[in-house]
Design a protein that fits this description.
Blueprint lengths: L1 E3 L2 E3 L5 E8 L2 E8 L17 E7 L10 H7 L6 E5 L2 E5 L12 E9 L5 E9 L2 E5 L2 E6 L6 E8 L3 E9 L4 E9 L1
Antiparallel strand pairs: 1-2, 3-4, 5-6, 5-8, 7-14, 8-13, 9-12, 9-14, 10-11, 10-13
Length: 181
C-alpha cells in the first residue's frame, strides 16, 4: 500500500476480501485486481446540546464520604460553565482552563434526538459517575475508580441526559458517546 497526498493506493494481485471493524460499524470489502475502488469512512455522531457546569469541592464536601454536602454544593455556583456538543475529557492536567486539576465535579445536562434505530450509550469515567436518561438513573458508579466503561441500550428519539461526575485526583476521564448498535 502506498500513500499519496490524495489518499492511499493499494496494489492487488488476484482479489482481496477484507472485513473492517470501526467504532460502531462493520464493512466488508471485496477488491478485484485492476478495478478501481473508492473507499470512504464516516463515523456516526449524535450531537448533544450539553450545558456543562464545573465545580470545585474540598474534602469536607467530597462526593463519597459527604454525599449530602456534595449534593448541596452541585446546586451552587460553578467555577465555570460551557456549552458543547460532546462530553469528551481525557486529561492528566486540568480538563478546562479555570477548573482545578483535582477535586472537581461536573454536572452536565443535555438533549439529543438520534434518528429511529437502536443505539448503545457508552460512558467512560475515571473517577465516579452517575447517568440519568429521561430522569431515570441508568448508571451509578459513584466511587473512585480507574477508567471504566458503562454501556446501556438506547432507542432513537428525543432523550434528556444528565451526568454527574467527580474527580478525586490524578488522571481524569469523562466521555459520553452514542453509537449505532
Amino acid at each position: 500500500m502506498t500513500t499519496h497526498s490524495r489518499g492511499s493506493r493499494l496494489a492487488i494481485r488476484g482479489s482481496l476480501q477484507q472485513r473492517l471493524r470501526g467504532a460502531g460499524c462493520v464493512l466488508v470489502v471485496t477488491l478485484v485486481a485492476g478495478a478501481p475502488y473508492r473507499f470512504e469512512h464516516a463515523r456516526f455522531f449524535a450531537p448533544i446540546d450539553w450545558t456543562v457546569r464545573f465545580l470545585a469541592y474540598t474534602d469536607p464536601t467530597g462526593p463519597v464520604k459527604q454525599s449530602q454536602a456534595f449534593e448541596k454544593q452541585v446546586t451552587g455556583l460553578p467555577v465555570k460553565t460551557v456549552t458543547t456538543d460532546r462530553l469528551h475529557y481525557v486529561f492528566g492536567r486540568a480538563i478546562e482552563q479555570g477548573v482545578p486539576r483535582d477535586r472537581f465535579a461536573v454536572v452536565a445536562e443535555g438533549t439529543a434526538k438520534p434518528p429511529r434505530g437502536d443505539y448503545v450509550r457508552h460512558v467512560i469515567s475515571d473517577d465516579g459517575v452517575r447517568v440519568w436518561v429521561d430522569d431515570a438513573l441508568e448508571l451509578d458508579s459513584w466511587e473512585p475508580h480507574e477508567s471504566k466503561v458503562g454501556s446501556v441500550l438506547l432507542d432513537g428519539g428525543e432523550r434528556l441526559f444528565k451526568v454527574q461526575y467527580f474527580e478525586v485526583g490524578g488522571f481524569a476521564e469523562l466521555r459520553f458517546d452514542i453509537q449505532r448498535r
